[in-house]
Amino acid sequence: MSAQASPAEKGLNPGLMCQESYACSGTDEAVFECDECCSLQCPRCEEELHRQERLRNHERLRLKHGHVPYCDPCKGPNGHSPGARQRAAVRCQTCKINLCLECQKRTHSGGSKRRHPVTIYHVSKAQEQLEGEGMDEETKRKKMTEKVVSFLLVDETEEIQVINEEDFIKKLDCKPDQHLKVVSIFGNTGDGKSHTLNHTFFYGREVFKTSPAQESCTVGVWAAYDPVHKVAVVDTEGLLGATVNLSQRTRLLLKVLAISDLVIYRTHADRLHNDLFKFLGDASEAYLKHFTKELKATSARCGLDVPLSTLGPAVIIFHETVHTQLLGSDHPSEVPEKLIQDRFRKLGRFPEAFSSIHYKGTRTYNPPTDFSGLRRALEQQLENNTTRSPRHPGVIYKALKALSDRFSGEIPDDQMAHSSFFPDEYFTCSSICLSCGSGCKNSMNHGKEGVPHEAKSRCRYSHQYDNRVYTCKACYERGKEVSVVPKTSASTDSPWMGLAKYAWSGYVIECPNCGVVYRSRQYWFGNQDPVDTVVRTEIEHVWPGTDGFLKDNNNAAQRLLDGMNFMAQSVSELSLGPTKAVTSWLTDQIAPAYWRPNSQILNCSKCATSFKDNDTKHHCRACGEGFCDSCSSKTRPVPERGWGPAPVRVCDTCFDARNVHLDVPEAQVDEEGGTLIARKVGEAVQNTLGAVVTAIDIPLGLVKDAARPAYWVPDHEILHCHNCRKEFSIKLSKHHCRACGQGFCDECSHDRRAVPSRGWDHPVRVCFNCNKKPGDL
Questions:
Q1: 10-residue block means of pLDDT along the chain (777 residues)?
Q2: Cross-referenced Gene3D superfamilies, in alphabetical order (predicted)?
């Protein structure tokens, strides 16, 4: 190597001086770096040093602009990796070595070395760019994956752990407009799925956690972005592991498979087991049966310009053996994919959903496993866009979110068919008819789209649920199905006239088209059953959570009670003001002379609380002032005022001064004797009237319970409002919605609307939720 520096090289690194000082004084600019000498050298020192026989074969590097030397003590970030040496951050002038930050902290943080003078290196962008230009393609790829980290995408309970589409893109650390594909991996627990992804996509970096422990290290679904191949890599939980919620976790695997473009099935068995073929076959069947339609609906609903489900993903079976030959080795004339199709056919499984199935095997005589063949197969499949094209990350998130919203919830074990990896119970509605036991055939959560329950078979009649539905026979013969229900009165009758007719002629059946077609007591005798004359019956399924088929909508007793309550409430409200005025005047007339008149008591004499119209004023029997209930709740005899020997109400101040004798003239006591008698008589009358009112209220509650329609929830079962959850008390009254029969407070049920299906043809009280329903109730 020439020791002469060209004029163009001078000034390239003005901050880097010769570190040898062998032929110079250390003030010359460095032009070479000798890795074995561990120093930067000027041309003169480089020439003189390497004339020596033992130093002649040293490898020297001509410095470029912005060059920073390597750290001398360490050989890499973890001390043993010669291919990834750390650049120095400082040079110790005393020790004459270059140090990275970690080595400086380790060797120069204590003792006398802390005082050694150092020279700081500044890594420029130009240096980084020059380093990148000097890397080969493999090294550049490794550097691109150095900052990749994985994140939990879906937990073991099928809950998505990213907030929204933007959060998903942020955690992937890719651009929103980046087109990418999804690669996922499946296999039994312990077969090395995470290890395979780390070595196939991330050059051995532990992006997905691995562990030698017996417990599975991957719980839920984890994801990471590979910037080299521009794919979202998804790691899943292993099959056949010891886990809870096995059904939900198995269903989660199919959701991941549905959004994937390429699936790796990793197996470490010496021979391909039947579980592999059963899993892929059942997954294919479930994908076509449940997921294809939902993915197409998501494309239409979200306005996606990329079809999500022309065909399912491609599958690569990665088979690693140790003691046995790879598939097809003993049949050179047949390709492995043909043998795999034969195995599927023998087991009665047909993987029609997958766009292609490929086999890639490797035999590991001595570790580590060779993943290069798998990597080449993956790159070849990722370049094929004929079936599955790349798409934005937002599209991937929307597809996963739609599948999670549709297919979620607990799966009852007692309804499970364990003959398949993906039975229909994983994806269909779990509701069971209460009458016949048939299951709903619609997909999960279909109620969110307004689709009713539907069963494959007809239902049978059950007296417990009375699941008969009446339809008008005349309309049926004209080609229409019109449901009718027995009720108290016709829609054309006024409420009171309808009650009168009900008392005389019984309940009616009214058709919207034909009018009143039946009265239960139309004749004195010989009234026929409506089923034999004017209606036909159908038996329908009884699904949990529905209102059922209570056709007895005779609400005459409740309507009568509502009318009486309305009249009583009106009289009470109209007479409330005059009653209070008369009561106040009458109290003042019979009060003792030392009592302050009610008209002069505006607030409590102790706490100064102002009295409102509905507040009750109490007089202290000792001092005669007016108090609120809390300030005059104590009692004791007041013989000085003629109240005794029984305890009477006194204020807190007079109660505390019970031993102080009140200086009351005897004449005044005698004069007030008659007034006290009148006051005592008045209090006795009030207590008696209160007892009478209470005695009337008790049978009224019994009448209400007996009069309620059959579909109403009993009063004793209603503890809080069905909508706002407020607890009912003496001050908060409960009201029944005439449509659903649940209990509500007045604020949540103040709307009025006719409910023909329940026999209420005139506007009646309905709850907030029922009032929002379109059409007739």
A1: 43 63 80 80 87 83 76 56 63 80 80 82 53 64 86 86 90 88 88 89 88 75 90 85 66 83 90 87 81 67 50 87 86 84 88 88 88 90 82 86 76 49 58 78 67 79 78 85 78 68 75 83 75 82 66 48 47 47 64 79 84 79 86 82 78 73 46 49 49 45 59 82 84 84 87 80 84 80
A2: P-loop containing nucleotide triphosphate hydrolases (3.40.50.300), Zinc/RING finger domain, C3HC4 (zinc finger) (3.30.40.10)
- Per DSSP, 396 falls in state H
**In CATH, what number is assigned to the domain containing residue 106?**
4.10.830
Number of domains in the chain: 5
CATH number at residue 226: 3.40.50.300
Q: How far is Cα 287 from Cα 351, in angstroms, rounded to an integer?
A: 10
Give the residue carrying structure tokens 């069905």. 722
The one-letter code for the residue type at 33 is: E
157, 49: one domain: no
61 and 170 belong to one structural domain: no
Using CB atoms within 10 Å of the CB of residue 506, give its burial: 0 to 12 exposed, 13 to 18 middle, 19+ buried: middle
pTM exceeds 0.90, yes or no: no
> In this structure, what token pair is assigned to residue 333?
């004339």
Cα gap 357→363, rounded to integer Å: 20
Collapse the DSSP code of 644 into the 3-class scheme (helix H, G, I; strand E, B; otherwise coil) and give the result.
strand
For tokens 């990213």, what's the residue? Answer: 162
Q: Which helix (H) or strand (E) holds 509?
A: strand 508-511
- Residue whose pair of structure tokens reads 């040898």 in the numeric block: 20
Q: Are residues 527 and 580 in the same domain?
A: no
The reply to whether 158 and 116 lie within a common domain is no
Q: Are strands 643-650 and 634-638 parallel, antiparallel or unpaired?
A: antiparallel
Helical ranges in 407-466 per DSSP H:
none
CB-count burial class (<10 Å; 0-12, 13-18, 19+) for 628: buried
73 located within any domain:
yes
Q: Tell me the C-alpha distance between 62 and 41, whole Å.
A: 10
Element (H, E) at 721: none
Amino acid at 129: Q
542, 433 in Cβ contact below 8 A? yes
Look at residue 426 and tell me if it is in a domain: no
DSSP 6: P
Check if the beta carbon of residue 472 is closer than 8 Å to that of residue 517.
yes
| 444/442 Cα distance (integer angstroms) | 7
- Whether the upstream peptide bond of residue 368 has omega within 30° of 0, thus cis, is yes
Q: Which of 100, 147, 119 is nearest to 18 (CA)?
A: 119
For residue 542, what are the domain limits?
Answer: 468-547
The DSSP secondary-structure symbol of 391 reads B
